[in-house]
Design brief:
By secondary structure, the chain is α+β, with helices and mostly antiparallel strands. A hairpin with an 8-residue loop joins strand 1 and strand 2.
Length: 172
């Protein structure tokens, strides 16, 4: 018998197996999810850079952990010396939208939302068009997350890594 003659039969058998094999549902499905190995202490944790970037904005991150050890709230934004938030600066947002297709009012809340979904900054993906902000979010969120594991609610101040203007073609 030709070895290719068995291929359709194998495909049909595999299809029937997946069609009739019971998939987990309800509580059984939840029990198959990997258990989180990270325990977070309730409280508010924050991290920020020690000085503004070359545009004059200082990134900061704040998260609140509930009594169940889950991230309940997260805020990621930038502040300037006047106390204005980057996500609220319409001119800057428009400049970024023209340059890269999205602005801080788009990507800052998206980072925070994704953190609430994944409950771990390591799992939050970078956002195309926000290269520097993606790096800053990861660094600040990971620092605060580390403190939440130990229960240390002291604000974290991190040296600003990006004092030089970005290279040509790099986004904010």
């Amino acid at each position: 018998m030709n070895r290719y003659a068995l291929l359709p039969v194998s495909c049909i058998l595999a299809g029937l197996f997946f069609l009739f094999y019971p998939s987990p549902s309800g509580e059984d499905a939840l029990q198959q999810l990997p258990a989180s190995t990270v325990t977070l202490s309730p409280g508010t944790y924050s991290a920020m850079y020690d000085q503004p970037d070359w545009h004059g904005w200082k990134a900061f991150f704040i998260m609140k952990i509930n009594d169940g050890g889950e991230i309940e709230e997260a805020t990621y934004d930038y502040v300037n010396k006047s106390g204005d938030l980057k996500t609220q600066d319409q001119a800057y947002n428009q400049e970024m939208i023209n340059d890269s297709g999205l602005g801080p009012s788009d990507y800052c809340p998206r980072f925070a939302k994704n953190l609430l979904v994944y409950q771990n900054p390591e799992e939050v993906d970078a956002i195309t068009g926000a290269t520097h902000s993606s790096r800053a979010f990861k660094e600040l969120a990971q620092a605060a997350f580390k403190n939440a594991q130990t229960g240390d609610q002291s604000p974290i101040i991190i040296p600003q890594p990006e004092l030089a203007a970005p290279a040509a073609g790099e986004n904010h």
